[in-house]
């Protein structure tokens, strides 16, 4: 039962009642830029995304780009980059994220793609992403038992 304050209103959580960190927050530690980048580029359901694959998304992105649909092209390039990141193909991920940023220069969050342009940032993001996927996979396997 929630604790009630004066006048029967629910008390606001105190500073000592902090929420539990997510796995991604734990892995990124205090690096907010890394967290924001990976929060937008990690695959939530890798199996579903992998079904279509990188080439399907690249072909779609090029088709959308030829049809001057920058938003759909960006989304398809982002999907290709996310799959590449999942597969540990850093150079490929950098290429697709760069393309996503270029094709839709008005996208408000294009900084998440540009983050991968810096080699150190990209390597750190890949390391955290790989650890994230490994831990998520382990949790999934344990739940299935």
Would you mind describing this structure in some detail?
With 145 residues, the protein is an all-alpha fold. It has a domain at 47-144. The protein has helices spanning 23-28, 32-41, 46-66, 70-86, 90-103, 111-114, 119-144. It is globular and about 60 Å long. The mean pLDDT is 88.
Task: Name some characteristics of this structure.
145 residues; mainly alpha; 7 helices; globular
Write the layout of secondary structure elements.
Layout: H1 23-28, H2 32-41, H3 46-66, H4 70-86, H5 90-103, H6 111-114, H7 119-144
Helix pairs in contact: 3-4, 4-5
Mean pLDDT: 88
Q: Please work out how many helical segments DSSP would assign.
A: 7
Annotation, overall tally of beta strands? 0
Residue runs with pLDDT of under 50 for 5 or more positions: none
Please describe the biggest sheet, giving its number of strands, its sense, and whether it closes into a barrel.
Answer: none
- Rounded Rg: 19 Å
Distance, first to last CA: 33 Å
- The share of residues in extended strands comes to under 5%
Shape: globular
Indicate the structural class: mainly alpha
Describe the structure concisely for a colleague.
By secondary structure, the chain is mainly alpha-helical. It has helices at residues 23-28, 32-41, 46-66, 70-86, 90-103, 111-114, 119-144.
């Amino acid at each position: 039962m929630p604790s009630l304050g004066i006048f029967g209103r629910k008390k606001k959580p105190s500073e000592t009642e902090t929420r539990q960190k997510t796995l991604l927050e734990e892995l990124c530690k205090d690096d907010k830029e890394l967290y924001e980048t990976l929060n937008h580029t990690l695959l939530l359901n890798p199996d579903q995304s992998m079904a279509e694959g990188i080439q399907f998304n690249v072909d779609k992105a090029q088709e959308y780009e030829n049809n001057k649909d920058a938003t759909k092209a960006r989304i398809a390039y982002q999907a290709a980059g996310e799959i590449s990141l999942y597969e540990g193909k850093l150079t490929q991920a950098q290429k697709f994220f760069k393309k996503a940023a270029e094709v839709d220069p008005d996208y408000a969050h294009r900084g998440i793609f540009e983050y991968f342009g810096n080699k150190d940032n990209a390597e750190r993001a890949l390391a955290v992403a790989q650890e994230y996927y490994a831990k998520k996979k382990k949790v999934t396997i344990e739940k299935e038992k």
